Amino acid sequence: MGAKGSRWPLVAAVTAMVAVAAGVRLAGLNWGLPTAHRLFSYHPDEGPLLGAVANMLQSGDWNPHFFNYGTLYLYLVAIPSGLASLVLEGSWTRLFVIGRVLTVTLGVLTVLVVYATGKQIGGWRLGLAAGWTMALLPMHVLHSHFATVDVPATFFVALALLAAAKITTQAEFPWYLVGGMAVGLGAATKYGAGLAVVALVVAHVLGVGEGRHREPPHEWLYVALMIALLAFLAGCPYAIEFRGGVPGLGRDFVHDVSFELGHMRQGGTYAFIGVGNGWAYHLARSLGAGLGYPLLLLALAGMVLAVASRGRPAGPPVVFGLACFVTAGLGKEYFMRYLMPLTPVVAVWAANLVVATGESLLGPKRAGAAPVPPGGKALPSGRQRLGAGLVALVALAAWGVTAWYAVAQLWPLAAPDARAVAGRVLLESDQRIALADPPWFYTPDITPYNGGAMTAGQARADRRLVITEWETQKLVARRPGMAAVSDLESADLVRLGRPQVLAYLDALRTRYQVVGSYETAVPEPRIGPGKLQCPPDWLYARPRITLYRLKGG
User: Fold this and answer.
1) Are the C-beta atoms of 45 and 338 separated by less than 8 Å?
2) pLDDT in tens, 192-232
3) What is the rounded distance in angstroms from the CA atom of residue 161 to the CA atom of residue 163?
């Protein structure tokens, strides 16, 4: 869009992009919030995070004593929550709402940053295509509904990638400061986001400046790294403790970070046992589900084309993207959210395939008759139109089906949840209810104490509940009138062939009859793996709950 042309079409396109990004992220935002029937939401990670925020507000101690992730997000939720409590009565649910609104805000800002990054790398066409791809990128859209750290950390990663793109083309000192700050604040939100420092280092190596700074001074990179460290400590101040006037790593910080590293190294989540190579799992299942196969294929092809078509500015996102993917597959835990920092890169790669191909066919400026280089041959206009038409058709088809796939994931967030529907049926039966595990995010709404291990004691004291722990003997001896099983707790145990679980389910089929099965399915078409092959954090809104009634009861 040249200087002589009107900028209004571009402004309108960007405005529409932001509006769509905000709309799909706000739709269904009240999904599974705490109510009088449940203390915790349907997302298992929201409770521990926001519990740390509640403890800070109640105690006045701004050390959250919770360092499984960085603490910046906790403070960003705590500050507005504390201000709201000055004029309004305190509310546990309000913490969830504020946390989710914060996630939505940073998610939408990420779309704008990706637009700016694409524009810096390849012009306004690539910027718009990348921004729109990010606006409707399925895994980013879904996770933008949760009060968790993954989407906020990705905002800072995207900002670091923008700074890296700027440094490769116009190595100016202010962008080193922006990049360093983004890396530090990202790590203070979720430690893994600090890997974006790789993009800054690569950008510095490739960077070309102007005037007397044709090659950016190494001191600029050192300052950026120092800024990153200071920004991390600003967002995670209690990572450092002073003992006897000597600074050192905080004990809570070391304990929680060590726990997370050990958990990733040793594994233990049933969904990831026996699934093979971590990189293959992430490629076929995490990205297959989180992007849909059409967008995944566009992104992979766009990555191959990126360096050849875009040169230096493509270097930092390519290196960072590969580093992020390799790191995510090293351990034994393969949650989809580990790849969330990769989404800005995916958006640019996927957009690049279409834009670069179109520009190679029609010329970057789409002039009426592009000049022919000496010794070169101009393609016949008919072939130009046919080639451009095919590229446009493939791109529109891929983006269209991906956009529908992204919007379809919102249906379980807006429709009546299976947990609430099954819970009403169970409570109306006025029978004792068997659960295999203490009530958690995947179980029906039958008790307020749905926090898993956090509230197991209170749940066991509820006389309506019989917690069997997958022991058939307890089920047979206690003879509860009703029973409930969620596929989010049982499917992987069945896949692994656990004898205790198989015997328990067989006893249910023998001694009980199925009352009903409740699930909020995602509308077709399905362009990702089947439900049983998806990572668990793609399925939190989609449990299938089967209810049983004792025969002759």
Assistant:
1) no
2) 999 999 999 999 998 775 545 567 888 999 999 999 999 99
3) 5
Q: Which residues, including other chains, have CB under 8 Å from residue 307's CB and lie 6 or more apart?
A: 314, 315, 318
User: pLDDT tens for residues 439-459?
Assistant: 999 999 999 999 999 999 999
Assign residue 6 a region (left: φ > 0; alpha: ψ between -120 and 50; beta: otherwise): beta
Contacts of 471 (CB under 8 A, 6+ apart): 500, 504
State the DSSP code for 342: G
Kindly list the distances between the CA atom of residue 416 and the CA atoms of 28, 342, 412, 419, 441, in Å, as whole numbers in the listed order: 11, 32, 8, 9, 15
Give the position of tokens 């991390």: 232
Q: What is the DSSP string of 406-434?
A: HHHTTHHHHSPPHHHHHHHHHHHHTS-EE
pLDDT (average), residues 317-340:
94
Q: What is the CA radius of gyration of the chain?
A: 26
For 480, residues 6+ apart whose C-beta sits below 8 A from its C-beta are 431, 432, 433, 434, 466, 550
Q: What is the pLDDT of residue 243?
A: 81
Residues 329, 275: Cα–Cα separation, whole Å: 12
Residue type, 164: A
Separation between Cα atoms, residue 344 and residue 140, nearest integer Å:
9
At CA 254, angle to CA 183 and CA 98, rounded to 5? 55
CA distances from 161 to 131, 149, 150 (A): 14, 19, 16
Task: Work out the burial of residue 118: count CB atoms within 10 Å of its CB; fewer than 13 is exposed, 13-18 middle, 19 or more buried.
Answer: buried
39 to 69, 75, 98, 195, 492: CA distances (angstroms)? 22, 22, 17, 35, 26
State the Cα–Cα distance between residues 252 and 74, nearest whole angstrom: 16
Q: Which residues contact 445 (CB under 8 A, 6 or more apart)?
A: 37, 38, 419, 420, 422, 423, 424
Gap between the Cα atoms of 254 and 243, Å rounded = 15
Amino acid at 526: R
Structure tokens at 76: 């960003």
For the question of whether the overall pTM of this predicted structure is more than 0.85, the answer is: yes
Which residues contact residue 58 at a Cβ distance below 8 angstroms, ignoring those fewer than 6 apart? none
Closest of 222, 75, 215, 88 to residue 152, by C-alpha: 75
What phi and psi, each to the nearest 5 degrees, are found at residue 275? Answer: -100, 0
Contact 291, 139 (CB under 8 A): yes
CA distance 300 to 298: 6
CA angle (231 as vertex; 244, 182 as ends), nearest 5: 160
Distance, in Å, from the CA atom of 48 to the CA atom of 68, rounded to the nearest integer, reads 10
